[in-house]
């Protein structure tokens, strides 16, 4: 095929016509206007818009449009051979009509050169529209006319008579590469990948196990354990933060961990059958950790000596029950369906992000007691998650899936060697003696290090029972106060907003249509019911959908209800074995803090990922998110630092949670003062208020805001697949038929 500019091709065509003397000049002989008008140049911006419509991935280099002959250079060879010679008519600006004998006829086009695809019957594209497709034989067919579906059975450059040239380029492997066609770069993505709707990269979409699939007995057990091991950091580390500051012993920590495992198993099974029916694990969320720390550090509890742990736990139980009852009312009454109209990605993203960022004052300050343990832990979990995420062992991405439990196991063994080697032995000092009872200044200096770094400090393994079944009211009757109840009511709203974003994202991850507002309300109502169970059993925090579910489904590619239910059953069994909770309670505090640094950062990142559903480049959106996050950090800092005397009593990492008793808000009503100061000292609450107000008052189109699109209530009755995915079991649905607002 001859190459060069359009002008050179036209000149050669004119010269050949003059020499041969037989060339036809259609423009002079025929008195009609040809159906196709040649275009002398291409607008690359239009090419990008066309690419978005058709799925063609291109990267515009910013240079001038490519000439037609330069584009033909990309198809010059086929298996080492040469393409047929193509001549351009000097008047028409396209191939001669009498060249049909020089090329292979692929199919018959319509009159006037319009080609109709045999696959979908659509009118063919213009000659300047490239097509890239992979055939089953592993070859990539590239051309400027073709099938919009990408079947590439008919690909090439067609003239006005419908004839065409097949341009085929072999592809050695399915790997990420770039093929340059003039100024257009064609990306071929790895196996399992596909371009996103906006032209960017979208990860592999194939699931190993779908929502209603049963992979078999052995894979079911494996996937179930895998699912919960990837969530281990979220399920078991919260008691290690809370219980010591509540005055609890190592045995109490083990009991709370076992209770959390039991409740997570029960509530997950309930949600799988009666909630949204999505494969989501329920558990103690970080959303409830900040308000729990605020209540724990109330002034009246600081000097409490007798039964401090039980008293604070009962206070938390009462507050959680009231907040969960409010969440039940929100869901069962249908108010959540109305509230959904006001909850969008621009509200969800900064709120969830603030949940993770709220603990920056606790994370590394607590982990810094043992840098020789915590820095390797952080480095190892990041190496597993980021640098080794693509490595597959026996077909499993072990480093990516088990990043947290694998890194914790390795560093825990390493810390045991340090402890056994005497790295934390100080002459005359005993790590089991409280700091207040230590007389020697040298020992008092090292007591904090020994208690946070040694692996043999905890006596949970020796004191915990082999078998213990968690039961309701195991800490005593809940205590109800107005101040703590108000705090948990508002926090339950934050948890509901968090869950809305998780529901929507997960439904897309498992290739489902989004749930209806009624199904979302049903899920929120059941979360409230599960929160009541958490309050009765005494886990210290409410129960909600874990944000980390999105990450787990993404990395494991397993989204089966049965897998989640089997894993939940294992959690219930493990909760009955007291030594399991005791083993987890023995994790050194600094090691747990370093893992939480990663988990909180992951929570913040997952929150920001909700912006993908909106126009993230919109000035309106980025301003709302930025202002919400900044004020969500700055306003609570004012309340937390209002009375610096707290820093003389509490450790620095607990000062942010002491503002409830010494904040600037004073109304004369102590209960109200405590609640308002506590709420305005929590980052996630302030961030939600600011984002909610701005997003619903600043003008913006639905597309710009990324308004969540939920399925309609009538879709469940008309779409059998949607009905089987979200509808309640038949017997339950008959009993709850009057709850029309729940999508039953």
UniProtKB/TrEMBL annotation:
Residue ranges of the TM segments: 220-242, 254-274, 319-340, 346-365, 377-395, 401-426, 486-504, 563-585, 591-609, 621-639, 674-694
One GO CC term, this protein: membrane
Region (Disordered) residue spans: 1-147
Primary location class: membrane
InterPro entries registered for this protein in UniProt: NCS2
Membrane topology: Multi-pass membrane protein
GO MF annotations, alphabetized: transmembrane transporter activity
Subcellular location(s) per record: Membrane
Keyword Membrane among UniProt keywords: yes
Pfam (any one): Xan_ur_permease
Keywords, in A-Z order: Membrane, Transmembrane, Transmembrane helix
Amino acid composition bias (Basic and acidic residues), ranges on this chain: 27-49, 70-79
Family label: Belongs to the nucleobase:cation symporter-2 (NCS2) (TC 2.A.40) family.
Protein name: Nucleobase-ascorbate transporter 11
């Amino acid at each position: 095929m001859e190459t060069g500019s359009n002008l050179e091709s036209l000149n050669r065509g004119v010269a050949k016509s003059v020499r041969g003397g037989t060339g036809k000049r259609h423009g002079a002989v025929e008195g009609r206007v040809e159906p196709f008008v040649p275009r002398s140049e291409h607008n690359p911006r239009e090419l990008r818009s066309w690419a978005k419509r058709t799925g063609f991935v291109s990267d515009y280099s910013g240079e001038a449009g490519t000439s037609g002959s330069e584009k033909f250079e990309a198809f010059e060879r086929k298996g080492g051979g040469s393409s047929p010679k193509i001549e351009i008519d000097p008047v028409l600006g396209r191939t001669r009509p009498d060249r049909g004998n020089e090329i292979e006829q692929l199919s018959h086009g319509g009159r006037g050169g319009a080609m109709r695809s045999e696959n979908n019957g659509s009118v063919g594209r213009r000659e300047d529209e490239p097509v890239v497709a992979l055939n089953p034989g592993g070859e990539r067919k590239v051309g400027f006319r073709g099938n919009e579906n990408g079947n590439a059975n008919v690909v090439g450059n067609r003239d006005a008579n419908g004839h065409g040239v097949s341009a085929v380029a072999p592809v050695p492997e399915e790997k990420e590469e770039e093929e340059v066609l003039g100024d257009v770069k064609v990306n071929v993505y790895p196996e399992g990948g596909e371009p996103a709707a906006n032209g960017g990269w979208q990860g592999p979409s194939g699931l190993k196990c779908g929502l209603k699939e049963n992979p078999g007995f052995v894979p079911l057990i494996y996937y179930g354990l895998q699912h919960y091991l990837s969530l281990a950091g979220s399920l078991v580390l919260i008691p290690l933060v809370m219980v010591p500051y509540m005055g609890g012993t190592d045995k109490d920590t083990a009991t709370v961990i076992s209770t959390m495992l039991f409740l997570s198993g029960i509530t997950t099974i309930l949600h799988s059958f009666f909630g949204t029916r999505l494969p989501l694990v329920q558990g103690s969320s970080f959303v409830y950790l900040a308000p729990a720390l605020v209540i724990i550090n109330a002034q009246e509890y600081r000097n409490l000596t007798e039964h401090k742990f039980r008293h604070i736990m009962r206070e938390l139980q009462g507050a959680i029950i009231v907040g969960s009852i409010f969440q039940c009312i929100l869901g069962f009454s249908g108010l959540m369906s109305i509230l959904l109209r006001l909850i969008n990605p621009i509200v969800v993203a900064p709120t969830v992000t603030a949940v993770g960022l709220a603990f920056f004052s606790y994370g590394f300050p607590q982990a810094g007691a043992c840098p020789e343990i915590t820095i390797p832990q952080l480095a190892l979990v990041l190496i597993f998650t980021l640098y080794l995420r693509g490595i597959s062992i026996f077909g499993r991405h072990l480093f990516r899936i088990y990043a947290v439990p694998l890194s914790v196991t390795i560093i825990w063994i390493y810390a045991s060697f340090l402890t056994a080697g005497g790295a934390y032995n100080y002459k005359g000092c005993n790590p089991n003696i409280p700091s207040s009872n230590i007389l020697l200044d040298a020992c008092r200096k090292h007591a904090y290090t020994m208690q946070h770094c040694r692996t043999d400090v905890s006596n949970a393994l020796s004191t915990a029972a082999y078998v213990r079944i968690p039961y309701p009211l195991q800490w005593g009757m809940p205590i109800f106060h107005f101040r703590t109840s108000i705090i948990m009511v508002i926090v339950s709203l934050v948890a509901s907003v968090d869950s809305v974003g998780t529901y929507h994202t997960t439904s897309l991850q498992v290739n489902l249509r989004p749930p209806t507002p009624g199904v979302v309300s049903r899920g929120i109502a059941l979360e409230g019911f599960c929160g009541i169970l958490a309050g009765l059993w005494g886990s210290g925090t409410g129960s909600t959908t874990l944000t980390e579910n999105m990450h787990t489904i993404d990395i494991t590619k397993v989204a089966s209800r049965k897998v989640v239910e089997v894993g939940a059953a294992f959690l219930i069994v493990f909760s009955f074995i007291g030594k399991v909770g005791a083993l987890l309670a023995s994790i050194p505090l600094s090691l747990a803090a370093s893992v939480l640094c990663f988990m909180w950062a992951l929570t913040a990142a997952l929150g920001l990922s909700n912006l993908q559903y909106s126009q993230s480049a919109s000035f309106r959106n980025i301003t709302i998110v930025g202002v919400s996050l900044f004020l969500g950090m700055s306003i609570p800092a004012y309340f937390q630092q209002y009375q610096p005397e707290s820093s003389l009593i509490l450790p620095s990492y607990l000062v942010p949670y002491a503002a409830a008793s010494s904040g600037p808000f004073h109304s004369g009503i102590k209960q109200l003062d405590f609640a308002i100061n506590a709420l305005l000292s929590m980052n996630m609450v302030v961030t939600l208020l600011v984002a909610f107000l701005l997003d619903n008052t600043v003008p913006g189109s639905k597309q710009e805001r990324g308004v969540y699109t939920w399925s309609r209530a009538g879709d469940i009755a008309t779409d059998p697949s949607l009905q089987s995915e979200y509808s309640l079991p038949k017997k339950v649905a008959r009993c709850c038929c009057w709850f029309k607002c729940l999508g039953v």
